[in-house]
Structure formats: C-alpha cells, structure tokens
Design goal:
Elements (H helix, E strand, L loop, with lengths): L1 H32 L8 H9 L31 H10 L2 H9 L12 E7 L5 H14 L5 E9 L2 E8 L17 E12 L6 E6 L13 E9 L11 E9 L9 E7 L1
Antiparallel strand pairs: 1-2, 1-8, 2-3, 3-4, 4-5, 5-6, 6-7, 7-8
Length: 264
C-alpha cells in the first residue's frame, strides 16, 4: 500500500497528460477531417454564416474566398492593428487556432520570412499549455524564455535558428528592441506539402542539428501567413506568421502546439 501511495501522484500526472494528449489529437483529427478534398471546410463556412460573434469569425469574409478551391482565406479585419491581432490570438482556444491555421494563406516564397521574428506561445488546451511552456522555455531554451525565430541563408542553404531572451533579463516586458537575443537550435526550412492537410506550409525541420538521443530530434514546425490589410501596414511587416510545432514522440502534428511570429 505504501508503494502504491508513493506512485499515486505520478500515476495521476501521467493519466492527465495522456488524456490531454488524446484530447488534442482527436480535436486535430476532427478539425482536419472537416476539410474535404478540394480544401473547402464546410463546417467552418457554416460557422462563419451562423455565428458572427466569435473572434475567429472576424477573420473570415466571403470577399477572401479562393476562386479555385472555395476555401475561405483568413485575413485580418480592417481597423485591427498588429497588437490587436496578437491579443486576439492569445485569447483564442486551440481549436480556433487550428482552424485559423488551416485557412491561412499558403506561402509561395521564402523571402517573406527572412529576418528576425518575435514569438509567442498560444493556447494548447489546459494542462498542455503549461507543459508546452515548460518544454519550450525551461528545456528547449535552457531556462530562457523563447522569443521567436530568425530565418536566413548560410552558405546558400536556408537555415534558421530559435531566439531566446537572455537569462539575465527576467521577463519579456523588460527586454527591448535593442536587446541582443540568445540563439540556439538551428533548423532547415522550405516550402512543401503540409503534414496536416494537402496545402503548402513553410516546414521547419530540426533533425540535422540534433543528436540521436535529443528530445528535439523529431521536432518539426509548420508556418502559414495571416495578412494584414495594406492600409494598416506595408512591406514585410504586413503579415503575422501562424505556426504549429510538434515532436514525433509526443504525437506529431495531431498534438501540435500553436504559436505566432511577429516581425521584430
């Protein structure tokens, strides 16, 4: 009985994590299944018509329907600033973030992501939000807060790296545009078919830069584009990147964690 009691907290924690992972996986599967073979998400389209009060529905308009696929393309409503969009993303539940990602603009060139981007981890459903934050900041970041990515070219190859707030700066609020970010964990990136649906994403792969025993060996990210109206912002800053991050050992993209990237 003493042995059982000693392991009860661990068993409960494992059960909660397992149940949460299954929940995320089923949620992702059902959302993706709502998209038919030509990319049209009938469930989402009906939702846009019937429910106009949710934050998600503000990002869909019949004016931005793809002529070839009948797929609604998510765009930022007129009048919303970049900070407004970030606040919206922070308040969305994971299922809405996944739906938004599936309807974001597909990338057609890699120059659009070149440079440094600030990053924010988004809702990953209850306890898994806490787990994602711990894995990203304490383990992946070695006790440094994750702060996005940098994309560029190294010897003619498309290589990026993750950015972290230096450990001597205690919070994101205390950092500034002049703060030099720490960097770690390189990745290759390219445009290719998504692991989630049949559309294209910018896919980030870490396996070439991790040893065989690394937790991050199977890590992959996918990124798509949420475009702001040109009347609000111009140039490279007129987009926000919506991403999903995953690791093979924790369920892959069925259990992906949402994040966003904002041009530094």
């Amino acid at each position: 009985m003493i042995i059982l009691n000693a392991f009860t907290p661990a068993a409960v924690a494992i059960a909660i994590l397992a149940a949460s992972t299954i929940r995320n996986s089923v949620e992702t599967f059902l959302i993706v299944c709502n998209c038919n073979s030509n990319g049209k998400n009938t469930n989402t389209n009906n939702r846009i018509i019937k429910g106009k009060d949710s934050i998600l529905n503000q990002y869909f308009s019949s004016d931005h329907e793809d002529f070839y696929t009948d797929k609604f393309i998510a765009t930022v409503p007129l009048g919303k600033s970049k900070s407004d969009v970030v606040n919206d993303l922070k308040s969305m539940p994971r299922n809405d973030l996944l739906t938004l990602f599936l309807h974001c603009e597909e990338p057609n060139n890699l120059k659009i992501v070149e440079g440094e981007w600030d990053g924010i981890l988004l809702n990953n459903n209850g306890v898994l939000t806490t787990v994602s934050n711990f894995l990203t900041n304490q383990l992946f970041g070695n006790n440094r807060q994750w702060n996005g990515k940098e994309f560029g070219y190294v010897k003619g190859k498309q290589i990026g790296i993750n950015r972290f707030i230096p450990s001597h700066i205690k919070s994101r609020k205390k950092s500034s545009s002049h703060t030099v970010m720490d960097t770690a964990h390189q990745f290759d990136y390219s445009i290719s078919t998504s692991s989630i649906d049949k559309s294209s994403s910018i896919r980030l792969k870490y396996n070439e830069y991790q040893n065989s025993l690394s937790l991050w060996k199977t890590m992959e990210d996918e990124i798509r584009i949420l475009r702001l109206p040109k009347k609000v912002l111009r140039g490279k800053s007129d987009i926000i990147l919506i991403g999903l991050g995953s690791m093979g050992w924790s369920g892959g993209f069925l259990n992906a964690s949402p994040f966003c990237l904002i041009k530094s």
